[in-house]
């Protein structure tokens, strides 16, 4: 391989390899992988366990493992992770992590803990899907994410709304 090719890599929109949330025992609660770095669930969970073992007792916000850049944050009994390649900009990954955390914080009404997340897991997946699609960062503003997912402090959670209510609220917003 030509060494200058490594120095002048084309910029890519595909910046996120994975997003996952683990509980304080390192068990998966939510995970989305965007490429085939870890093709099987077994390999993904092994990677998650390695990441958790390396990060759960530290106060830093970034780790490097298996040639990947990992930014993370903990809250009460949850650990939030965003994974990118070794060449990825850590600030960009941190922006995704912050957007994820702030969006979930708003959705869960400032009660970001395991029980609350599990009760609203469908909404949490919607939040992740609004932020990143196929590894491409779509949104980094938590207010925009919340608006798109249709969660507001005064609204009932999406799981408690009927399909007609969601459709009607979308029509009103687009009018």
UniProtKB/TrEMBL annotation:
Signal peptide: none annotated. Residues 15-152 form the AP complex mu/sigma subunit domain. GO terms for cellular component: COPI vesicle coat; Golgi membrane. InterPro entries: AP_mu_sigma_su, Coatomer_zeta, Longin-like_dom_sf. It is a peripheral membrane protein. Keywords: Cytoplasm, Cytoplasmic vesicle, ER-Golgi transport, Golgi apparatus, Membrane, Protein transport, Transport. Its main location: cytoplasm. It is found in: Cytoplasm; Golgi apparatus membrane; Cytoplasmic vesicle, COPI-coated vesicle membrane. Pfam families: Clat_adaptor_s. The keyword Transport applies. It comes from the Eukaryota. GO terms for biological process: intra-Golgi vesicle-mediated transport; intracellular protein transport; retrograde vesicle-mediated transport, Golgi to endoplasmic reticulum. The coatomer is a cytosolic protein complex that binds to dilysine motifs and reversibly associates with Golgi non-clathrin-coated vesicles, which further mediate biosynthetic protein transport from the ER, via the Golgi up to the trans Golgi network. Coatomer complex is required for budding from Golgi membranes, and is essential for the retrograde Golgi-to-ER transport of dilysine-tagged proteins. The zeta subunit may be involved in regulating the coat assembly and, hence, the rate of biosynthetic protein transport due to its association-dissociation properties with the coatomer complex. Belongs to the adaptor complexes small subunit family. Oligomeric complex that consists of at least the alpha, beta, beta', gamma, delta, epsilon and zeta subunits. This is Coatomer subunit zeta. It comes from Gopherus evgoodei.
């Amino acid at each position: 391989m030509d060494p200058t090719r490594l120095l002048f890599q084309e910029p890519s929109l595909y910046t996120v390899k994975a997003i996952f949330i683990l509980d304080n025992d390192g068990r998966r609660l939510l995970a989305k992988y965007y490429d085939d770095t870890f093709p099987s669930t077994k390999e993904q969970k092994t990677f998650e366990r390695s990441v958790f073992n390396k990060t759960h007792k530290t106060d830093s916000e970034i780790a490097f493992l298996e040639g990947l850049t990992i930014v993370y944050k903990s809250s009460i009994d949850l650990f939030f992770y965003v994974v990118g390649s070794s060449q990825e900009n850590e600030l960009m990954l941190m922006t995704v992590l912050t957007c994820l955390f702030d969006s979930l914080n708003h959705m869960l009404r400032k009660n970001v803990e395991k029980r609350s997340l599990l009760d609203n897991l469908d909404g949490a997946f919607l939040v992740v899907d609004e932020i990143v699609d196929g590894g491409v960062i779509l949104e980094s503003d938590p207010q925009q994410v919340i608006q798109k997912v249709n969660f507001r402090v005064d609204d009932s959670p999406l799981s408690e709304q009927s399909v007609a209510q969601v459709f009607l609220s979308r029509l009103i917003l687009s009018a």
